[in-house]
Every structure is written in C-alpha cells, then in structure tokens.
Specification:
Radius of gyration: 27 Å
Number of strands: 18
Strand content: 15-25%
Low-confidence stretches: none
Bound molecules: adenosine-5'-triphosphate, manganese (II) ion
Length: 476
C-alpha cells in the first residue's frame, strides 16, 4: 500500500479540500453493506465522531473485506469527498485498505448497550467505546484546565512526595510501603515491628494528601498547587470513593476564609467553563446518552453564585425542615458530622445551588484548621468552638472540595496536636513553618475524579478513572 501521511479523524472531518488523497487509521466501529458497496464507521480516538469509509467490494480482495470486522484496526488510503449522507460533511472513498490488526468475534465490545459493571471487567478495552472515549478526553481537558488556571494566576506546580513517613494527616487509612519480608518480621519484646532495617529505616506509607508539604511550599513560594495521585485504604465501597485517586491541592499564603472561598468558587467555574468551551462534542454525546440534564447543569454552575453558609446555619435549616416533617435516616444535632442525605437536602432541595459550608465544629475537623475567635449561637445557646474549614457541596456529588484556613499560631497548633495525641514525632518540620516567620495561609483539596463525575454526568467514580482501584480490585 502506498505510504501517505496519516490524518487524524478529527482533522480529516474538518477538511474541505475534496478530491484530496488521504490516509486514516483507526478501529472499525461498524461495517454494513448493500449491493456490492460497504460502509465502515472508523474511529481513531481523536474525536467522538467516526469517519465514514465507502468502498466497492469489487475493488478489494475478498479476503481483506472479510477481515473488516467490528474492532479490527485498519489503514485506509482514499479520496476525501463531500458526503451525500445526512449528519456528516465528508466521507472517504476507499482506494486501498490494509488490515493492521484483525479482530475476531470474541471481541468483548461487540454488543451495544453493555452495562457499566460489565465494561469495568474489560477496562483495558473500554476506552474504545464512545462513552469512555468521551470521558477520558474530558479528563485530559480537565487536567489542562487545572494547570492553565493556576499557571495564569501565578501559582507554582509543586511536587510533593508520594511516599511519606508522617501518619498524622488523619485524612484516611494509609497503605504501608515496605521491602521487608512479611514472613519474617523483626519485632521488639512487645511484638512491635522494628523498621530500622526497612528500606527507609522507618515506617512509611503512601500519602493521603500533599497538604502538609504544600504548606511548606506556600509559606515560601507564596502560592502553589499540587496535582497528583493520593491513596486511601478506607474500606468505603461507595460510588464516590477510590483507594487511589488524584487530588488537586492549592495552598496560598496571606489569604483569609473569604479569599479561600472566592478561590474555590472561581476555580471550579473556570474548569466547568473550560469543559463547555473545549469538549463540546463529547459533552453533547454524554448529554444525549448518559445524562439529559448535563449541559444545562454545567451552564447553571457558571451562572450561579454559590451559597455560603456556616455549619450552624446549616443545622438550623435541617432542624427546621425536620420540624416541618422532613425525615432523615441520621440525626443532625450540632456537633454531628453531616451525613450525605443532609448535604443533599441543603444543596438539591433547599438551595438548589452549590453550597460552601464553613465554620465546622472543631471536634469533627482536622487538627490544623484555624480556630474561630467566636463561638456560634444556636437557639440562644452558645455552642462549642468552630474552625475555619470549608467544604464545597455539589449537587449529586456531595463534597467536591475540602479546605481550610490553617492554624498559623505555633502554640495553638501544638496545643491541638497534643490534645488530640496526633503522632508528630516525624513532623518537626511542619511545626517549623509556624516557628520561623509564620503567616496566615490556607488551601483546599479537590478530588479530581469527583470533578470529572460532575462534568461528565457519570454516576460511578469507577467509570471516570481508566483503571480504578477499590477494595478487592486492582486489575489491569
Ligand atoms: P469524604 O467525606 O467524601 O470521604 P474527605 O472529607 O475524607 O471526603 P478530604 O480529606 O477533605 O476528603 O479530601 C479532599 C477531597 O478529596 C474531597 O473533598 C473529595 O473531593 C476527594 N476525596 C476524598 N476521599 C476520596 C476518595 N476516597 N476517592 C476519591 N476522592 C476522594
Ligand atoms: Mn473533607
């Protein structure tokens, strides 16, 4: 076959130089034929759209035509022509076809309409479907949006370690990292494992968050963000949790709670707008096939001001709702962590908007959050201390961001660490930020996959990451 430089399908579909000879390569989505003519829908992953290849049986070897089956990989030389068919401007009249990779009928993506569960069992092939192609192209675009946003705003992309010796972050259960022989562990007289002969000479784990190191960077470079994998060994089998997920964690010096909320809101809106501007065809597909309200919801986010609400005000609204007959499975007394049904009520029923919730009880939040000066009052009664934490709650997703202003006062921070018995023996470096030229600062963590869930309208977090890791699942 004559060598002609390949054109991607996304580019060939934009061309109008009809009569030109082109080469396209890709995977056969479908082939049909009638009266000696065959039609191939060819996709190469560069776009959700297929290019139509038209050929006459008589011009090709029967043995070649027989191998043009669903899933087969082919290379086509042909003439770009205006298409008589509706829904496409152009098509390719095939002159030469080469089978790059045949595909027999054991191909797992033969049938349309396979369930999400089934497709997870063929995660190595599911990017070849329309839906997963769209999801992963959007995922790429969201990564670009994140870098673009922060770069534009003068934040530096800072790389924090994935292997950590600090087990104090408290954000979740950790996976241990060791090269020790698990069948022959060195132990002390109390049966505790001795790590001095382990790879790092101490116990280490995969990080649950880059925040603490991010704070070091913010208190020197001014504004940074991390964007990388995070690991949590929590045994939560929900459609919102993964054991390995990607997190975006900006951290900024010299900001207060209002600045932090402004950043959270502006950042999410920027990412959603990026998707609407850059992923139009994929979003239109998902809007049609997966979630009919998707594009309207995305547009709605950009046009809405997020509600900013204190935890105490949230509790008031929830208790008022219960008085008026609303039933919840879990109680919501001041001091309780809100259950997802409570968050959903506030976001989806009461406000019908994203909610940034702040000023949580100190007892349900992490040790590093800045303690509020004043205690809140509920029904005329003074409550316990609160902290300057913010959770951004989204329709259908629940918590998409968790952030806070950090406690910058050395004594207060140490007091919390001691009171909570946070294991800080390896954390002297963290306290040093408060000891040497401490400054007000804050930041947040956004779960990248939760953002992708929102932007794609997919229902399960396992379907927005190529190879999901969840309890009992580490295939591919
Ligand atoms: P959740 O209450 O939903 O379990 P969290 O409060 O433990 O979340 P944070 O420690 O605040 O989460 O982490 C910051 C962000 O990371 C969350 O707002 C969420 O978007 C995301 N996230 C947290 N845990 C997971 C997980 N297991 N899988 C995917 N994303 C997660
Ligand atoms: Mn959180």
């Amino acid at each position: 076959m004559e060598k002609i430089r390949r054109t991607k399908v996304t580019d060939v579909l934009k061309r109008t130089d009809f009569g030109a000879t082109v080469n396209v390569k890709g995977w056969v989505r479908s082939k049909r034929g009638s009266k000696g003519i065959f039609f191939i829908a060819l996709n190469d992953g560069s776009t959700i759209k297929n290019v139509q290849i038209v050929g006459e049986d008589q011009n090709f070897d029967e043995s070649v035509v027989k191998l043009i089956t669903t899933g087969a990989c082919i290379s086509v030389n042909g003439i770009l022509v205006e298409s008589p068919a509706a829904g496409q401007a152009s098509e390719i009249q095939a002159k030469e076809i080469e089978i790059l990779g045949a595909c027999d009928n054991s191909y797992p993506l033969q049938k349309k309409g396979a369930s999400w569960e089934y497709l997870r069992t063929v995660a190595h092939l599911r990017p070849r479907t329309n839906t997963f192609g769209a999801v992963f192209r959007i995922r790429h675009n969201m990564a670009m949006a994140i870098h673009s946003y922060f770069h534009q705003k003068g934040f530096f992309y800072f790389h924090t370690p994935l292997i950590t010796a600090s087990d104090c972050e408290g954000a979740g259960q950790m996976f241990q990292v060791t090269t020790k022989n698990l069948y022959d562990l060195k132990k002390d007289e109390n049966g505790q494992i001795i790590y001095d002969d382990d790879f790092f000479g101490k116990q280490t784990s995969l990080t649950v968050s880059g925040q603490l190191e991010g704070e070091l960077a913010a208190t020197s470079l001014g504004a940074i963000y991390t964007f990388g994998p995070t690991f949590r060994a929590e045994n939560s089998n929900t459609p919102r949790h993964l054991a390995e997920f990607w997190m975006v964690e900006p951290e900024v010096a010299f900001i207060d709670l209002d600045d932090l909320m402004d950043l959270e809101e502006d950042f999410i809106k920027y990412c959603v707008k990026w998707a609407l501007d850059n992923c139009k065809e994929d979003l239109e597909f998902l809007n049609k096939m997966v979630d009919k309200g998707l594009i309207e919801r995305l547009q709605g986010i950009i046009d809405t001001e997020f509600v900013r609400l204190s935890y105490t005000e949230g509790i008031e609204i929830l208790q008022e709702a219960m008085k008026n007959g609303k039933k919840f499975e879990f109680p919501c007394n001041w001091g309780d962590d809100l259950a997802s049904e409570h968050e959903r009520y506030l976001v989806e029923e009461h406000f019908k908007k994203p909610v940034i919730m702040t000023h949580y009880p100190k007892s349900i939040k992490a040790f590093y959050m800045k303690i509020d000066d004043e205690k809140p009052v509920l029904n005329g009664q003074e409550m316990e201390e609160t902290v300057q934490g913010t959770d951004v709650l989204f329709p259908q997703i629940g918590e998409i961001i968790g952030g806070s202003v950090r406690e910058e006062n050395y004594d207060k921070l140490l007091g919390e660490i001691e009171r909570r018995e946070v294991p800080m023996k390896d954390m002297w470096w963290y306290l040093d930020t408060r000891k040497y030229g401490t400054c007000p600062h804050g930041g947040f963590g956004l779960g990248f996959e939760r953002l992708i869930l929102f932007v794609t309208g997919m229902q399960n977090i396992r379907d927005v990451i190529p190879f999901p890791r969840t309890p009992g699942h580490a295939d591919f």
